[in-house]
Amino acid sequence: MALKTRRSLLVVLGISLLLAVLGQYYLARKSYHLWDGIFLYALAMACFVWVAARLEARTEPQRGERVAIWQELWQALRGSRIRLAVLVGGFLLIVYVTLTASSRSPDKRFWDLLVLWAVSIALAVGAFVDWAGLPQRLRATAYKLWEHGPEVLLVVLLALLTFLLRGVNLAGIPFVLSGDEASMGLEAVDVIKGQRNNPFVTGWLSHPTLYFFMQAAFLRLFGITTAVLRLPSALISTVTMVLLYLFARRYFGRWVAILASIFFATYHYAIHFGRLAINNIWDIFFALGVFYFYSKGLEEKRLGHILAAGVLMG
After folding, report:
1. Least CB-packed of 16, 121, 164, 277 within 10 Å?
2. How many CB atoms lie within 10 A of CB 246?
3. Quick one: angle between helices 149-167 and 226-252, nearest 10?
4. Which SS3 state, helix, strand or coil, does residue 79 take?
């Protein structure tokens, strides 16, 4: 790539970053200019996609070589009007949810919007899924897991250890239900009572209320107790351990992955936060998920992994 072209791409990339920062400023500090912030973000994304497309441009992919992510996106949409219609439908749904959530009275229920939000994500992802080749990929994944049976068994045992160290006697360890846990728990109880209805705003101490809705689902299913309030943290810690193993295994090898997973499973600091009914432990899950799927998707040019990273980032 010519030096002049590389400089031009760097300039456009810098403009993309500045537009994104400015868009975030409008969204965070000037809420009455919501659409200005969204427009700036859209421009930033367009610049970023253009740069990425130029960097991954190929005249003709070599035999056996996967096409670039952006080309795969374009080919998927161009080759099927149904896919394009599904993607547009998902986009229109999320626009509807955004507009309705900001205008609906707080004393009215928002469950329909929460369902539509989940459906819009499913439509956006489903528009790019190769449904015809899905069974074959699932069989290949199952065969690969069977082929690495002992290693898979080890990961399962480490996951079980992670959960047991966080899930046993949740009501008694730690003995005190801290103020932060209780405050978030009360927010979840308010969701059940119908006193907090909007999952798309912030609540106690500016925490996003969606987390309280997730806690409320557990409390409604299993009862309003300290153990149930803390259960989601123990479960997500277990999933986080699996992601940690996959991430470390990919970039540092099997032994580093095993040691890192054992360390996370038994580390007193991680155990402590994995037993608390607060959203801090979820940060590790989302960060690891985004890094793992995004990096793997870029390296292997796999659209599915990029989509998974996008969902987790959202």
Report:
1. 164
2. 18
3. 150
4. coil
Helical H segments across 267-302, by residue range: 268-273, 280-300
For the chain, what's the residue count? 314
Residue 165, token pair as written in the block? 């160290």
Section 45-54 average pLDDT: 86
90-122 pLDDT per residue, tens: 999 999 998 899 889 988 999 999 999 999 999
For residue 233, which amino acid is it?
A: S
Contact between 248 and 292 (Cβ < 8 Å): no
pTM of the model: 0.80
What is the distance between the alpha carbons of residues 129 and 151, in angstroms, rounded to a whole number?
Answer: 29
* Tokens representing residue 203 in the block: 């609540």
Q: Which two tokens stand for residue 141?
A: 């994944």
How buried is 44 (Cβ within 10 angstroms: 0-12 exposed, 13-18 middle, 19+ buried)? buried
Nearest to 44 by CA among 78, 23, 20: 20
Gap between the Cα atoms of 196 and 219, Å rounded: 15
Q: Per-residue DSSP letters for 140-204?
A: HHHHHHHHTHHHHHHHHHHHHHHHHHHHTTTTTSSSS--HHHHHHHHHHHHHHHTS---TTSB-G
